[in-house]
Amino acid sequence: MEMNTLLIGAVLGLIVGFIGNKLIERHKFSKQIEDSNEESKRILEIAKREAESLKKNKIIQAK
Question: Where is the Ribonuclease Y N-terminal domain (predicted)?
């Protein structure tokens, strides 16, 4: 009887550990995706500002 209890406890521990690990990984990857999206938006905003500045300079130079 003791061996069965120990075996059941070990199996349940492995299952809970596996599920917990998957939940942690999912959260970690979603956070990385969110951070990447924010970084890409920031880079695009900087590029737009630089392009607008270059455009204004070229218009001024053309005059």
Answer: 7-63
What domain range is 53 assigned to? 22-63
Q: How many CA atoms lie within 13 A of 43 on its CB side?
A: 6
What secondary structure letter does DSSP report for 6?
H
Q: Alpha-carbon distance 19 to 16, whole Å?
A: 5
The mean predicted confidence, pLDDT, of the chain is 93
| Total number of domains constituting the chain | 1
DSSP state of 7: H
Q: How many CA atoms lie within 13 A of 5 on its CB side?
A: 2
Q: What is the pTM of this model?
A: 0.60
The CA distance from 12 to 6, in Å, is: 10
pLDDT for position 10? 95
